[in-house]
Each structure stands twice: as structure tokens, then as C-alpha cells.
Amino acid sequence: MLAEVLGCFAGRFGRVEPRRAAGQFVTGLLSELEVKTCWQLAEQAGHARPDAMQRLLYRAVWDADAVRDDLRQLIVGRFGAADAVLAVDETGDLKKGIHTVGVQRQYTGTAGRIENSQVGVFLGYAGADGHTLIDRRVYLPASWTDDRDRCQAAGVPDDIEFATKPELAAEMITAALKAGVPAGWVAADEAYGNSATFRAGLREQEIGYVLAVSRSHLVPLDGGKTRIRADRVAADLPASAWQRRSAGAGSKGPRFYDWAWLDDVCTDADPDDGGRHSLLIRKNTTTGELAFYRCWTPRPATLAQIVRVAGIRWSIEESFQAAKSQVGLDQHQVRRWDSWHRFTTLALAALAVLAICAADIADQDHADNGLIKLTVNEIRRLINACIIHPISDLAHRLHWSGWRRRHQARARRAHYTRRLNLELQP
């Protein structure tokens, strides 16, 4: 599978050197390296210097978007289904300084608070028997797009303008559908569900959605004549309105919740679009905590279908966890626009290896042998035990130890010199 994933985009490299480096890069991301930057990946690959890996991310000639398209086609060929779900969400990486593309003090769910961070919006694909990430966009705050000199220094193309996170998500969904990705649904959290423009764009493309909204979201009733907070709607529901259903299997068994479905409501926008608007409410059976969803389908749907999509949204959270813990999605040390897209695309390729292997093994292993199915974590361990053989040559390791310390010493001298010069200026 590693060879198949690398082979699907090998033709995007005009020269053998970057093609070979890309294969070593993805293999290194799957390795057991604790930190997966160009230095560590180069040492893992047996290089004497990090130049080839750095050149791959910065100066080499290749199109990261074209590689993404090839990778997406491979994933869809394995997981594709007419009722597949496109899930969108964002994730942040904590950063220092101000020069890394898109970085500023902003809220990130990674830290749960406002931090100096970089945020990326991602598109996940959950199909017949597996899920993974298929697209990515770096979020540029207005503080960046309003400062064209800053953008130019980070390599941001001149035609890139400010776009909200829902707008970036809509771009990725539109691109996927235009590329022929089979999907029947979109799922997202309330940062996207609260956007009327985002919901309208999905209806124009006639794709169903189950989008979380905030408890204070105003629900239009009676054709939009009345607007009531979502939590007030839930408070007025009788006990008979709730049904207990599973949102899918979790690590500890079926995820049961109580659900209330108000069919044919929320019709303030485009009431004649030919689809069915509804409000879905989920209640935690233990804590009583409520969650709310605006739903739309181009044709009649059942509660079971709506609940399934609501549950599948969590697949993108699982993909984020696997991408960060297994293939170093958040470990890049790049500052420029192209470099971020290149590193992230290669990380998605490494993640696809794990996701497809897990699905293939699950399809083949139907025996009740007292073992759980192989997880992406365990598959990566087996890849390292059986395929990736770390270089143990002592001379190679000592060379890299000396190279790192020498480079760090030069960098420290440069920083000290700059700091002293700034202190001596009048």
C-alpha cells in the first residue's frame, strides 16, 4: 500500500531526485521518529545533510495540489460510496513568532483558548468502510491579507484574499464534487452550521447536510414567521418526542443518545428549493447535555440516515488525532505558503497508507480470534517492525550529532550578535 500511494502521484515529479525524496519523506513520516522535521527525516533516510528534504518543501518543482488530486482519487477509489460523508473541521498548531504563514493570536481548539497559532481547515471523507483526510487549506486572518508585504514575504500568491473558514470549507467541498467525488452528505460543527451562506451553498449543490448549530441559534418556524432559540425548542418537547438510537460504534460500544427530530421546519431560506429542512436535537443519556443540528436533504430521508451522518462527523476528529500522533501533521517547521501545503499533502499521503491498510485488513479478517481489528496505530508499529529499518550505523549517527550541534552553534552566535546589535543601537 505504501508503494501504491507513492506511485499514484510519482508522475507529478519531473526529476528523479524530488520523486525519491518524496517517497523517503512519506516513509519517514510513518517511522517511529519522535520529531518529524526535515533534519530528522533526512537522517532517517540516510542523507548526510537535510538539503534534499528542505529543497522538496521549498524550491523543487512540483504541484502539491496535483498530488492532492491524485491522492484523493486513490482514496475515493477505495472508500467511495454514494452516501459517503464529506466532513469539514479545523485544527490549530501552536507556533512562536510572527513569520509563519497564517500565524497570529487566535482561538484554537487544540489549546482550547486564544494562543499564537496557525489554523488549517481540512476536508475529510468517510466512505463505505473507512475514512481519512482528502484536502486542506491554511487559514489567513485579515491581519495577513491586509498586509501584502507580509504575504509576499511568506510566499502567499497575490490572488489570495481573505476567506472565512466556512468559505474555505465550501471551496474544498465544491472542488471535490466537481472532481466527481461521490458523496451524499456534508457534516460539520457549529462554526460552519451557523453560517447561512455555507448552508445555502450546499443546497445549491443539492447535497444533503447535517450541521451542528449553537444552542442560541434562532430556529425559524412557521415558514420563518417565528424564530425561537434552539434550546427553547428542546425545552418545550414532550417526552414522546425522543427516540434512543446509536450514532455509531465507538471504542466502548454503540454510542447511544436520545434524539428528537422536527421534520419539515427551518424553512426560512429558499422554502421552494424542493428539499426537506429539519432540526435534529441530540441529548446525552447520562448528563442530559444537548446538541443541535440544522439538516437539509434534497429528497426525503429517515431519522436513521440523519443520525448516521451526525455520528460520522466525529471521523474527522479521529483523522486529526491519527494524523498528529502517527504521521506528524503538526510537526512541520515551515514558514512559507508552498512549504505548508507540500508538507501537509505528504502527511495526508502517509495517513492514507494507514487508513487504507486498516480498511483492507478489516475486510479480510472476519474470524472471531479474540483480537480487536488492527488500528492505524498498530499498523504503523507493524510497518516499522517489518518494513522500515532504521539506520544503526554508528558513523552516520555521530555525523548527524556533530552536524546538528555545529548548525545550532552557528545559529546561536547569529542570534546573540543580532540581539547585541539591537541593544547597542541608540
UniProtKB/TrEMBL annotation:
Q: Which domain of life is it from?
A: Bacteria
Q: Which Pfam families match?
A: DDE_5 (PF13546)
The UniProt entry, under SUPFAM superfamilies, shows: Ribonuclease H-like
Q: What is this protein called?
A: SRSO17 transposase
Q: Where is the Transposase IS701-like DDE domain?
A: 8-219
